Amino acid sequence: MSDSSEDKGFNLKTLIENNPVIFICTVAITAFAMGWGVHEAISQATNNNPLIALCEFNTKGKIDFPSDNSKVSRTFATTGKIYGDIAKDRHIWLVVNPENSFGWYPQVGEIVPDVGSRKWQQSTIIGTDNESKNRKFKIALVEVDNDGNSQFKNNIASRNYPEEFLPDNTKFLYTITVTRQ
After folding, report:
1. How many CA atoms lie within 13 A of 72 on its CB side?
2. pLDDT per position in the chain (181 positions), as tens?
3. First-residue to last-residue Cα distance in the chain
């Protein structure tokens, strides 16, 4: 009786020994297909944004007081909270824009949130002593790069507070509108 049970069934070792090129090509095609599948899955999950871009800091912020559409005096404390980490080359500022005006006024200084609670408070001044009542102002929490930070610091140091365009690459984190009482 001959042992034909070895001829029946699949023997991977024999296949590899007898057909190494076919085996290598099969493994290569399978690996490529799996890599392509992973690439497509990541593309779908990230909306075709590069995966490295998703690893950047994604700072978010909120203004808690005053509330949107509230009436405020000329000077008051604005409060809020920062969510997420702030990248080393990014800075958070509060800026004010009078209604029907082209420019913005950076407030007292860069916002540095409390390490534990991530809350912040900033003195805010809107308008001038002679400013008419009932004028609307936008108050925005913004993130700027090092150049923007320098621009704002120079504006404050000039002590004449010129109205200015926002720096390139300014990212708005939160904006409210208030009305001067």
Report:
1. 25
2. 455 545 566 787 887 888 888 888 888 888 887 877 776 777 676 655 545 444 455 899 999 999 999 999 999 999 999 999 999 999 999 999 999 998 999 999 999 999 999 999 999 999 887 766 889 999 999 999 999 999 999 988 887 777 889 998 899 999 999 999 8
3. 107
How many C-beta atoms lie closer than 10 Å to residue 64's C-beta? Answer: 14
Phi and psi dihedrals of 112, rounded to 5?
Answer: -120, 105
Joined tokens for residue 90: 């990014």
As a residue count, the chain comes to: 181
- C-alpha–C-alpha distance, residues 64 and 148, integer Å: 24
Strand ranges for 109-170 from DSSP E = 119-125, 136-145
The number of angstroms, rounded, from the C-alpha of 166 to the middle of its chain's C-alpha atoms is: 17
Is the pTM higher than 0.70?
no
Peptide bond between residue 66 and the one before it cis (omega within 30 degrees of 0): yes
Phi, psi of 12, rounded to the nearest 5 degrees = -60, -40
